[in-house]
Amino acid sequence: MRLLPLAFTLAAAAALGLAATYAAVTQSRGLDVVSAGAWQGWPRSGTTQADPYARAGFARSGELPLELADGLMFLATHDSAGAPLDGRCDLRISGPLPQARVWTLTLMDAEGRLIANDAERYGFTSNEVVYRQDGTIDIVLSPRARAGNWIPTGARGRVKVALRLYDAPFSFSSDTGGGADLPRIATERCP
Amino acid sequence: MSAAIPPWLDRLFVGRRRALPRTARPPVLIRLRRALGRLPAAAPAAVLLPLATILVLAGITHLVSVLAMPTLAERSAYQRLSDIARPNTLTFLPDASPSGMVLPMTDPAFVSAVCLYDLGDHPLRVRVPATADYTSVSFYTSRGVAFYALSDQAAGRVIELDLLSPAQRAALPEDEEITAADRLVVESPSLRGVVLVRAYARYNDTRPAIRRQLEAASCMPS
């Protein structure tokens, strides 16, 4: 008679534990998250000090994270006001960028795939983008063609943006101080 | 006149009124709180003990499965690359495009090549001439942990280094002029892994030229 409750307990424990693992490896990129405004970075995930969650996530996804001496990636899935990034809206990424030899900004759909478009434009690099007078950037993500720095979103629902800084002379091992030096993301117009 | 509400309509309204919750608070929460309040009185040991057991076992399952993931994962970067690349040779990765990329989250602005290494027999010699733009070499274990990276800024015209296993490194004579010979020695924590060679193409049309420059790179057993 004690066998059934025991089996149920074990099954429930296994289901709960594996569900938590699945959620962790699909959602998280590590525990050492550094937030700067809308952006999140994981500086230690590209080092040998990567925590077990980062290791598990990368082993499952097959991604090779940027080694910290090479560069650092920031991801944004929400705008600066906290709303999820919606590819059907006009999204504006504007503001100053930290010192780096090269930076690239890449638009992806929710699964991390590039979004097909006729212009073959998936993002901007520090050499392609047209800067404003004061050296800041101003990039618009929109399903409709726009003047200036425009990345087509293909009217996807959820999108995310990766900002990669290469050969950046600063250290991100501690907090970056409230996101003063990463660009703002604003949702401007939704259909 | 006929101001009276037809009985069917009245019934409809009564039905609606009953469907509304009696209080403003969601009844689920109230029921939950009452259940929690009754819990110690009802059957403390009979309910709480299995519950605690489930939670503890679930925690253990979670930790073990997270720690085991790197060894159990079947589509890790090393395994994906084994399908398209031979060990100890440099293989170019197809450009990242909407139809897919070999490794997820690859920066589409870069030309990438990989070299799967196996230090079982010999150390690996990596030689990457700097291209016209940012060039970097990064090293990963077969489980995808990054352990070293070097860019052309730090290395100069040619990125040149020897990758050794811990045993090979220990066997190196201390006084050999290997470090003096302007050659970097890097120790790999694992016998197998991935060397990722990347070069930045600032515009789409400079990509073929960057790729040609990167073709001069090599990785071979030494």
TrEMBL record, chain A:
Q: Which domain of life is it from?
A: Bacteria
The DUF1214 domain is annotated at 71-168
Q: Which InterPro entries match?
A: DUF1214, DUF1214_C_sf, UCP009471
List UniProt keywords, sorted A-Z: Signal
Lipoprotein is among the record's keywords: no
The signal peptide stretch is: 1-23
Q: Name one Pfam family in it.
A: DUF1214
Q: What is this protein called?
A: DUF1214 domain-containing protein
Q: Which organism is it from?
A: Aquabacter spiritensis
UniProtKB/TrEMBL annotation, chain B:
* Pfam families named among the record's database cross-references: DUF1254
Domain (DUF1254): residue spans on this chain: 110-212
Q: Where are the transmembrane segments?
A: 47-72
List the InterPro entries: DUF1254 (IPR010679)
Could you tell me the superkingdom of the organism this chain comes from?
Bacteria
- Give the record's keywords alphabetically: Membrane, Transmembrane, Transmembrane helix
Q: What is this protein called?
A: Putative membrane protein
Organism listed in the record: Aquabacter spiritensis
Origin organism lineage: Bacteria, Pseudomonadati, Pseudomonadota, Alphaproteobacteria, Hyphomicrobiales
